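Incident log, support desk, overnight shift.

02:14 A customer reports that sequence design results differ from what the structure should imply. Their input is reproduced verbatim below. On-call engineer (initials T.W.) acknowledged and began investigating.
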């Protein structure tokens, strides 16, 4: 493992009123913080206030909320997206947040914690993998999903099946740590260029 802790950013992908995402994110962030190798940040998109309208070209000055969030994403070595499933997909606010940035995602691993309905949010995750692939990020295979969403958690905000959920979180965090370490070393050795251009 690297001498410097890996910087893991957990992104709460739902902004809907009454959302359950913060409960899931708090639990997962707690799991991540138990790893000595991880320095964990949590970004709540409901508090980021990113604009809905993207600029027409790269010359347009970025809005202040985008400039505020940019360094947090840029410093991350890895991401975990916490997402529900809305209409067989992921929330519009999450896609908007992803689209505001490009370089910040490149050559970094992304993991997924999903919840909701009979699929546990896995249909949202499958679509997110396509999106992050286009942005030159590396989705890890192992994820954490909660079939039934809030029904999987008790009144204290913990999973009703803690051992199973903790095993899944550990497996995903171990994968993320491997990729984050490898990609951070490679980015330091040779900065990543989309499309292989020098």
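02:41 Re-run completed on a clean worker. Output:
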């Amino acid at each position: 493992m690297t001498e410097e802790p890996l910087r893991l950013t957990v992104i709460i992908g739902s902004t809907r009123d009454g959302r359950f995402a913060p409960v899931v994110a708090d639990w997962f962030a707690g799991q991540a913080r138990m790893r000595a190798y991880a320095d964990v940040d949590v970004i709540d998109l409901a508090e980021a206030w990113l604009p809905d309208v993207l600029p027409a070209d790269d010359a347009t000055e970025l809005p202040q909320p985008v400039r505020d969030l940019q360094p947090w994403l840029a410093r991350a070595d890895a991401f975990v997206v916490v997402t529900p499933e809305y209409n067989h997909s992921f929330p519009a606010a999450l896609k908007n947040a992803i689209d505001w940035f490009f370089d910040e995602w490149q050559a970094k691993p992304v993991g997924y914690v999903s919840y909701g309905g009979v699929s546990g949010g896995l249909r949202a995750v499958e679509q997110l993998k396509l999106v992050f692939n286009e942005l030159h990020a590396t989705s890890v295979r192992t994820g954490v999903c909660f079939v039934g969403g809030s029904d999987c958690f008790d009144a204290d905000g913990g999973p009703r099946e803690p051992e199973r959920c903790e095993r899944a979180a550990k497996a995903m965090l171990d994968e993320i740590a491997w990729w984050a370490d490898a990609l951070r070393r490679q980015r330091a050795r040779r900065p990543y260029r989309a499309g292989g251009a020098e």
